[in-house]
Write a structure and sequence with these properties.
The complex is a heterodimer. Chain A is of the alpha+beta class. Chain A has 15 helices and 15 strands. In chain A, the strands form five sheets. Chain A has a four-stranded antiparallel beta sheet, with helices on one face. Chain A has a three-stranded antiparallel beta sheet with strand order 8-9-10. In chain A, strands 13-14-15 form a three-stranded antiparallel beta sheet. In chain A, helix 11 runs antiparallel to helix 12. The longest helix of chain B is centred in the C-terminal third of the chain and has 18 residues. Chain B is globular. Chain B has a six-stranded mixed beta sheet, with helices on both faces. Chain B is of the alpha/beta class. In chain B, helix 1 links the parallel strand 1 and strand 2. The chains are: A alpha+beta, B alpha/beta. Chains A and B meet through strand 1, helix 5 and helix 6 of A and helix 2, strand 3 and helix 3 of B. Strand 1 of chain A pairs parallel with strand 3 of chain B.
């Protein structure tokens, strides 16, 4: 979908005290686009409000009344960049309800799921690093402007993303809205030769990812840090993707089924998204920095060494360095994909049969942007009665606003256009779905 | 179409339908793809020679995926929902050749990425434009999630699908 430019004339309202309130509305009904409201009073940030228009309860409603087996197909449509995350969370939640674990004798299926997720991390992180965020660090207005001077960077992005997409397509049946994923496993196992045929490109991708980490390590990062509570999965053996307990940097350590006991969603009137907060402590932080900070020891040696070499501290709370952590994760994903393929045992069956059982099930998997929680209630015929989906971007929403309040507040002395650009970059730290709408999330600030 | 019989020759023409079926008129592109396949089946064009000369694909519309999708094709036909301004009538069909598209054509990207306008601009910069490119822009009414196509857009979809079917008839098709 495309349209002609810029109908986003900001509305400016001036109150009797002289406080100026700027609102920039974007196409409110379009998924993933956002709007920013910033109110400045003199040298103080009075209000910061980020509106993210997520594909809200529409999909939860769409799921009700459908068969549990349809959940992976329906939820895959929620996000074009991370369909696998939605499929994985929905499959694991349904399997939890029905008492099925895809492991043990079916461990090869579990590994294939992880391999599929590697493909998604690669394509999502490659897109973010080069096309959405690198232009900010190099001083370009957009990837397009960057491409004119640095075509090799964009060519690299295309290559890396294509490798991730092809891995997803091989396992998922299609890179966009993969159709091969089902509750219990896959409809069809790809041919071993086709899987091994990817090894050369994965090795090249691993090399290029390492170069990318090194390149990013040399860039300038704003000095900015806040005492975030990092929240991610943690697993005994591996860097987390599909499995683990939910842990935090403040000592949280719970099974994923206890998510709702510790996290609450409050509906904020201005946005379709719900603000998700820790019951005891409020805003929290999910995504690559959280995963890395809580699971650095689970990275493969090549990824950990690259992180060390890049000067990444063991726990990083500078959200601007998220781009560097994503590059480390991209490197890890290539490395992990190669490990899985080198140890690949063809599964004996493409899926574990799953009989419906009435009950409630929860799952959390690590989408590229952070933890993605699904909860379902199904009846004894396997019909979905309730569905609840909490995406990572909405979990970060309050944290993003808090960042902006502090970040804007510390830079009010800058010229407006520079401050605007820095604030947009601060939002892109989180790689929210709206970050793709780089020209449509405008932060405009006016002062008295 | 039996892909196994393919000689290995790459299809020369790609029909690339962009959009999101769950978002009202943003589903126009995918709807064209579906109707085109149906039309071609009706005319029994499917299952022609084994080499396959036309491919039909659907994508959400993210720029890097567009560039990857059309690589290697001699001729590319893109179908996308557009909003060209306040006075445009939903269901109007704009036909553009590469040269007609303004260099600074901005798009409203979905959350899925940078959009067709960006894809074109990027392709120009990287010298990755297909040798021949035609764009069908279907003027849209609403992108509300969960709604179907506006009736006038639905009619436009059928017109475009018919026109494309006529263009490819006689050529073997991969669907």
């Amino acid at each position: 979908m495309s349209h002609r430019p810029d109908t986003n004339a900001p509305s400016v309202e001036k109150t009797s005290t002289g406080t100026r309130r700027i609102e920039v509305d974007v196409l409110a009904r379009v998924e993933g686009e956002g709007a920013m409201r910033l109110v400045l009073d003199g040298d103080r940030v009075e209000e910061v409000e980020l509106r993210i228009f997520e594909p809200p309860r529409f999909f939860e409603g769409l799921l009700r009344g459908r068969r549990f087996t349809e959940a992976p197909d329906v939820t895959a449509r929620i996000c074009g960049i991370c369909p696998v995350a939605y499929q994985m969370s929905s499959c694991h939640a349904m399997e939890a309800i029905c008492g099925v674990t895809v492991d043990g004798p079916d461990r090869p299926l579990r590994e294939l799921r992880r391999l599929l997720y590697c493909g998604e991390w690669i394509e999502s992180h490659a897109l973010h690093i080069f096309m959405l965020h690198a232009p900010d660090f190099l001083g370009y207005e957009s990837a397009l402007h960057m491409a004119a001077d640095h075509p090799e960077l964009v060519e690299r992005a295309l290559r890396l993303k294509q490798t991730g997409n092809d891995l997803m397509a091989l396992l998922g049946g299609r890179a966009v809205h993969p159709i091969n994923v089902r509750v219990g496993g896959f409809y069809r196992i790809p041919d071993r030769r086709d899987l091994l045929a990817l090894v050369e490109r994965l090795e090249r991708g691993r090399d290029e990812s390492l170069e990318t980490v090194r390149w990013l390590a040399g860039l300038d990062y704003p000095d900015f840090e806040r005492p975030y509570e990092l929240v991610a999965l943690r697993h005994p053996d591996e860097y987390p993707m599909n499995e683990g307990r939910l842990v935090s940097s403040a000592g949280l350590d719970i099974p994923v089924s206890a998510f709702e006991d510790h996290f609450e969603e409050t509906h904020v009137e201005r946005s379709n998204a719900l603000h998700c907060r820790l019951v005891e402590r409020g805003a929290y932080f999910v995504g690559p920095l959280a995963r890395y900070g809580l699971n650095r020891d689970r990275l493969s040696p090549v990824a950990r060494e690259a992180a060390d070499e890049a000067g990444l501290e063991p726990v990083c709370r500078n959200p601007f360095r998220g781009i560097l952590v994503r590059a480390v994760e991209m490197l890890y994903a290539f490395d992990e994909a190669l490990r899985i393929l080198s140890e690949y045992d063809e599964p004996e069956r493409p899926f574990v049969p799953v009989e419906p059982a009435s009950g409630v099930g929860h799952a959390i998997t690590e989408a590229p942007r952070g933890i993605l929680y699904h909860r379902y209630r199904i009846d004894d015929e396997g019909i979905i009665r309730e569905a609840r989906i909490v995406p990572p971007t909405s979990q970060n929403q309050e944290t993003i606003e808090d960042d902006l309040r502090e970040f804007a507040g510390a830079h009010l002395h800058l010229p407006d256009d520079r401050l605007t650009w820095l604030c947009e970059q601060a939002i892109r730290n989180y790689d929210p779905c709206i970050s793709c709408a780089t020209h449509f999330l405008k932060l405009e600030i006016e002062r008295k | 179409m039996n892909a196994e019989g393919r000689s290995g020759a790459r299809p020369r023409t790609l029909v690339l339908a962009l959009g999101h079926p769950d978002r009202g008129d943003d589903g126009a592109g995918p709807a064209v793809a579906r109707r085109l396949r149906a039309r071609l089946r009706e005319r029994q064009v499917i299952g022609g020679s084994a080499s396959g000369r036309v491919e039909i694909r659907e994508l959400p519309g993210e720029a890097t995926e567009i560039l990857a999708a059309w690589e290697g094709f001699e001729r590319v036909i893109v179908i996308d929902a557009v909003r060209s301004g306040a006075r445009a009538v939903p269901g109007a069909v704009h036909r553009l050749a590469t040269g007609d598209v303004p260099a600074d054509w901005k798009t409203s990207p979905s959350s899925h990425g940078l959009g067709l306008g960006q894809a074109l601009a990027l392709a120009r910069t990287l010298d990755r434009l297909p040798p021949a490119l035609t764009i069908y822009g279907i003027e849209s009414g609403s992108f509300e999630p969960g709604t179907g196509l506006t009736p006038s857009v639905e009619r436009a979809v059928e017109r475009v699908a018919d026109e494309l079917a006529a263009r490819v008839v006689g050529r073997p098709v991969m669907v």
